[in-house]
Write a structure and sequence with these properties.
single chain, 77 residues, alpha+beta, 58% helix
């Protein structure tokens, strides 16, 4: 039960990082590359897209993360 709590807490922390502007495109690209290497590309794409959308919808972040030529880029407003 403790293990499940740790996993859920880590996922929650991972998804909330972009909301407060902690994650940057290089972090998301690294997570995507990790899951691609582990042959879990769909899981990596889901996590990265969720984190990217969280970052972009946050009122605390003035910038946006967009995908350009298979690479995530931070666009200044």
């Amino acid at each position: 039960m403790l293990f499940l709590g740790i996993i859920l807490g880590a996922i929650n922390y991972l998804m909330l990082n972009p909301f407060f502007g902690v994650s940057i495109p290089e972090d998301l690209q690294m997570i995507n590359d990790l899951f691609t290497t582990l042959k879990l590309k769909r899981v990596g794409d889901f996590i990265v897209n969720t984190m990217k959308n969280t970052y972009n919808f946050s009122p605390l972040n003035d910038d946006k993360i967009v995908m350009e030529k298979e690479k995530l880029v931070l666009v200044k407003k």
